[in-house]
Amino acid sequence: MVNEQVFNSLIQELDAQNVALIAVSKFKSTNDIAQLYALGQRDFGENYVQELVEKNQYFLEKNICTDIRWHFIGHLQRNKVKYIASFIDTIHGVDSLKLLQEINKEAAKHNRIVKCLLQFHIAEESSKFGLDNTEAFEILEYVKAQHENFKNIAIVGVMGMASFSDDTIQVQQEFKNLNASFHLLKTNFHLANDQFKIISMGMSNDYALAIQEGSTMVRIGSLLFGKRN
Ligand SMILES: *Cc1c(COP(=O)(O)O)cnc(C)c1O
Hints:
Largest sheet: 8 strands, parallel
Distance between the termini: 12 Å
Order of helices and strands: HEHEHEHEHEHEHEHEH
Helix content: 40-55%
Radius of gyration: 17 Å
Structural class: alpha/beta
Bound molecules: pyridoxal-5'-phosphate
Strand order of the largest sheet: 7-6-5-4-3-2-1-8
Number of helices: 9
Shape: globular
């Protein structure tokens, strides 16, 4: 069930600050998604390839909600890129050059440009994925030198997940670090026509803090759809 009131006030709050909303619909039904769509939401985030493929297929077959922009926000294995390349709008979790090359290759087969965010490791937990500044620099140096071979991807910003913690100071510092990484990359690489402009950070429990620290895109699930089951 979608909470319409929560959605409307969240949208107001985000619009006022020029922050985009990704509605994270993992484990939620196509019915829930269609409800939020009817309220005007177009950007949806999913974590699992098979689930995403099935949902996309469902909407195509029904011929409803066909202009949803799907965001892949989970950890993406290279061998699964081919299943989503024909329709994915943005991939948030790019954490290696090889993955970027694979996305480019598969997107080319469909004559598309897939937007990509470089995922940074900002949390304390070692279980979370992501790059550090040095690794991100290496990727961008390579892409810059080989730009002829990366015509089917657009690197549009960065993404990160803060520690799952009540320590506000800690979480705030992690968001500050991601913001700093974003600006470091921006000044050093001047990525084409200012298309490098997204800082994807903030979830249900920490999005206000993330916005305070410069987030331009929040990924919110449980607040909109109710607790995950
Ligand atoms: C599940 C998930 C979210 C949404 O989390 P909520 O706490 O439900 O808002 C955001 N980002 C990523 C990467 C996720 O996996």
